[in-house]
Design brief:
alpha+beta
Length: 142
């Protein structure tokens, strides 16, 4: 699924109850994270729910780094937020990740008004964790 498909589907849903159900469904479609990846190194601090992001460094045909992610949470709505976030960043170069504005996309979709402050803080923590990974990857490849 692409972010444009998610935007289009959101536009079709008028009620936030329907949008929440859609976000939960996106979370159910996340690629499963192996239990071994549910560890302290992958745990995202600053989230009210349990959240894990597992990073995998790959190289494209030109040898350029790409970061891919698996994510999981013990909260259904958060799994959906992870699914949207990973649609925006997973499989991208560190430069593309740092240039991206995931929080702006979440604002565009209307989440700023519809997430609790704790969920908003958790979302920011996830974005910052991914940005940190991108900065580390760039530093290691120079």
């Amino acid at each position: 699924m692409t972010i444009d498909e998610i935007r289009e589907n959101f536009a079709l849903l008028d009620e936030w109850d329907d949008r929440y159900r859609y976000v939960i469904e996106l979370g159910r479609m996340l690629q499963p994270m192996p239990e071994s990846e549910h560890n302290a190194a992958n745990k995202v601090s600053g989230c009210a729910s349990q959240v894990w992001l597992s990073r995998k460094l790959e190289r494209d045909a030109n040898g350029e780094p790409k970061l891919s992610y698996l994510g999981d949470s013990d909260a259904h709505i958060v799994r959906g937020l992870i699914a949207i976030l990973l649609t925006l960043v997973s499989g991208r170069s560190p430069q593309d990740i740092l240039a991206a504005e995931p929080l702006a996309v979440f604002d565009e979709l209307g989440f700023r008004e519809h997430l609790t402050p704790q969920r908003s803080n958790g979302l920011r923590s996830m974005v910052e964790r991914i940005r940190h990974d991108a900065r580390d990857t760039l530093a290691a490849s120079t």
